[in-house]
Design a protein that fits this description.
With about 160 residues, the chain is mainly α. It has 8 helices and no strands.
């Protein structure tokens, strides 16, 4: 009995170990199906706005002066320009393909593609940008609520780190 169970376990282990890796072509097809490029482009489009919102939140309840607002706009544009070469579809696509091929088997990619080709999967794809935007909004609101606490903790730590005089 033990030999039979061990044999079955070995067969299952070998079968799962020899599962065909996902082909880059099938992953690229899946990424097209789920509109990955549009999701990246959409996230990229909102980046400058998110950066500006983050800077405004960092000010807390203080209304920025016209000069501060101008400097924040210049900084947000500079940050986007610095991030843009690393955060675009041409740069990210090969990384995504590699990640998917390392993570999923061909059978899994085929099943995921089948799901996203279904009416429910297509509905999920269509609703993803809105869901993503709302998740970002929730996260930003939570960060805005946390910033005063973080600032207070940093200020307290800075006071403690000052050398005694």
């Amino acid at each position: 009995m033990k030999k039979t169970l061990l044999s079955c376990a070995l067969v299952l282990l070998c079968a799962s170990a020899s599962a065909a890796p996902a082909s880059p072509e099938s992953v690229e097809t899946l990424l097209e199906l789920i509109n990955a490029k549009q999701l990246v482009d959409g996230a990229h489009a909102g980046m400058e706005s998110s950066i500006r919102q983050g800077m405004t939140a960092a000010l807390g309840n203080v209304q920025p002066t016209a000069e501060q607002s101008r400097k924040m706009e210049v900084l947000s544009k500079a940050l986007v320009a610095a991030i843009e070469p690393e955060f675009n579809w041409a740069t990210l696509k090969p990384e995504f393909v590699r990640l998917y091929t390392e993570t999923f088997t061909q059978e899994e990619i085929d099943g995921i593609s089948q799901f996203y080709s279904s009416p429910i999967g297509a509905s999920m794809i269509a609703k993803m940008p809105l869901l993503q935007a709302r998740c970002i909004e929730i996260t930003q609101n939570r960060m805005a609520a946390a910033i005063p606490k973080v600032q207070a903790a940093v200020a307290a730590a800075m006071v403690e780190m000052k050398p005694a005089q």
